[in-house]
Specification:
Structural class: alpha+beta
Radius of gyration: 33 Å
CATH architecture of the largest domain: Sandwich
Helix content: 25-40%
Number of strands: 15
Length: 563
């Protein structure tokens, strides 16, 4: 009995000591717990950081493929000397306490690649390529869920100085903030081989480039002599008339014409000229007229259809859904776009080659100074530029220069407020990729002359005795019919050209738009220099003008002030 009592007291004493340990024992347990926790966390974190090293990632030879791709990008080598490794983009940082859980999650994801290496699923470049899209989609989905945290460890919207960015970048970033987008929504494929175009259902870079080189015979480089045909002293080749085009993003539109134009009768080209080339334009003091610097660039075979296709052009959605004018993104980098196209380089999301036959020695863009004013009854347009060095090929030997301008009736052509006269440039026109009719000129879909759904067209020609063209583009292009009392003068002064148009604001003829103070007109222009014709020209983006009506909120708007 005594033994049982002692045992009971012993158990009770044990629990009392356990629940109320001496102070020294309590302190010892706390210290051991803290030290043990630090040791465990330190060991785990050390192991985590060790496996975050790029060198560790490359111990799996499968990772050599994406690493070699990374080395060719600005994320690996740049002017500031900063670089990123595998973990910087694929493992969350530890800048806040909750990132640790994300890092553990990423390690679990990474184990799939290790398993794939061991099982031989992605252990060769060929197998890796076959699974590339699947792996990329997994990464994109994760970054979407985390609001692109890995990107924002270095790049933050609120820290961006958009005044130092290109127009296209500034517009995109401002729009991303407004739309609640995250980095990965737009920046897929910036560190490794791009495959995101496959999500859009568009052609792959290689396929698109190959397809673009299969251009019709009409689109040959300007080396063929046939376009030099000039029917009569009063007639210019049909192919010499080009409507201006506008660009988007990335990419400009083309105003196409055949490299083998049909002969025109004297009536077809001269009847619409309301005044001979020698007519005197009203003297104006152009020093009092504001100037606008505009880059005209080489468009190749870009068309309205290409630009408005999301699979080809990343900004197509912005144009269609947000009603953003092409000039809003591309006015600042039109020169880069033109340089890439004239060199035969791929452009856009689909990496399409817009110029299958790059013209030797042709520059990508030409800076122009544009001015416009009116006197209440007539409107004037002045263009000034320094031409590049002339070559030895003359597709249009009669005209060293042709300058064409088109404008709508004040919002009468759908989409013209965004892309100017781009709506006249289509894939199935002669000299374009899908050309089936060598006589098909510019046109506007569902054109209607009575309701004003057409583009007014005026053109200056430098050839001796050539009259300006006064026509329009509706269901097809017409080079005569206008009665706007058009005058056009051009002069090559030293190393620069100056061309001036004078036109009655009232119009008055078939295919003439009246210009009034209550409307805003959408326009664009094109320049044929160095005796060229057809699509081997330079084009502007889409712009707008209004009479004595400032509109500072619209980037591509020009106020025509009365003088």
């Amino acid at each position: 009995m005594a033994d049982e009592t002692q045992q009971a007291e012993g158990k009770e004493g044990f629990f009392k000591r356990l629940l109320n340990p001496p102070k020294c024992s309590m302190l010892r347990m706390i210290v051991i717990g803290i030290v043990g926790g630090i040791a465990i966390w330190g060991g785990l974190n050390t192991g985590m950081e060790y496996t975050n090293r790029t060198e560790f990632c490359l111990s799996c030879h499968t990772m050599q493929t994406p690493y070699e791709e990374l080395k060719k990008t600005v994320h690996y080598s740049n002017r500031t000397g900063t670089t990123v490794g595998c973990a910087d983009c694929h493992v969350a940082s530890s800048k806040d306490p909750f990132d640790y859980a994300r890092k553990l999650t990423q390690k679990v994801f990474a184990s799939k690649d290790v398993i794939g290496e061991i099982l031989g699923t992605i252990n060769t470049p060929e197998k890796f390529e076959a699974h590339r899209l699947t792996m990329a989609k997994r990464v994109w989905a994760h970054m979407k869920e985390t609001d692109s945290k890995e990107c924002r460890n270095c790049h933050k919207f609120e820290k961006m100085d958009t005044t130092k960015q290109k127009d296209r970048s500034a517009v995109k970033h401002e729009g991303a903030v407004q739309d609640g987008k995250t980095c990965i929504d737009c920046h897929k494929g910036i560190a490794h081989k791009p495959v995101h175009h496959l999500l859009e259902g568009g052609p792959g870079p290689v396929a698109a480039a190959a397809a673009s080189t299969a251009a019709p015979a009409q689109a040959e480089a300007p080396a063929a002599p046939k376009p030099e045909v000039a029917a009569t002293p009063a007639a210019a080749p049909t192919g010499t008339v080009v409507a201006p085009a506008t660009a988007p993003a990335t990419t400009p539109a083309v105003a196409a014409a055949p490299t083998q134009p049909t002969k025109a009768t004297p009536k077809a080209e001269s009847a619409g000229a309301a005044a001979p080339a020698a007519s005197t334009i009203t003297a104006l003091d152009w020093s009092k007229v504001p100037t606008r610097q505009i880059k005209v660039f080489y468009p190749g075979q870009a068309s309205l259809e290409w630009v408005m296709n999301k699979a080809d052009h990343s900004s197509a959605a912005d144009i269609i859904e947000k009603k953003r004018a092409c000039a809003k993104c591309h006015e600042g980098d039109a020169n880069e776009v033109g340089a890439a196209i004239v060199a035969g380089k791929p452009v856009g999301v689909s990496k399409t080659v817009m110029e299958p036959n790059p013209p030797a020695g042709k520059v990508g863009f030409i800076p122009m100074t544009f001015q416009t004013t009116h006197d209440g009854s007539k409107i004037y347009f002045r263009f000034e530029w320094v031409p590049p060095k002339n070559g030895d090929k003359k597709l249009d030997p009669k005209n060293e220069v042709k300058l064409t301008m088109m404008f709508d009736g004040g919002g009468t052509v759908e989409g013209s407020e965004l892309n100017g006269c781009w709506g006249t440039c289509h894939n199935d026109m002669r000299s374009m990729k899908e050309a089936k009719d060598d006589k098909k000129t510019k046109y506007i879909k569902d054109a209607d002359l009575a309701s004003g759904k057409f583009m007014d067209l005026i053109q200056y020609r430098s050839g001796k005795g050539q009259s300006p063209a006064d026509g329009w583009v509706g269901s097809e292009r017409h080079m005569d019919g206008g009665k706007s009392h058009l005058k056009a003068e051009g002069k090559k002064d030293g190393n620069k050209w100056v061309v001036i148009f004078e036109r009655s604001m009232a119009g008055g003829g078939k295919g003439d738009h009246a210009i009034t103070a209550d409307k805003v007109y959408n326009f664009g222009f094109a320049l044929h220099e160095d005796f060229t014709n057809a699509r081997f020209h330079y084009v502007s983006l889409g712009y707008q003008f209004g009479l004595d009506k400032p509109n500072p909120g619209v980037k591509n708007y020009i106020d025509v002030q009365k003088q």
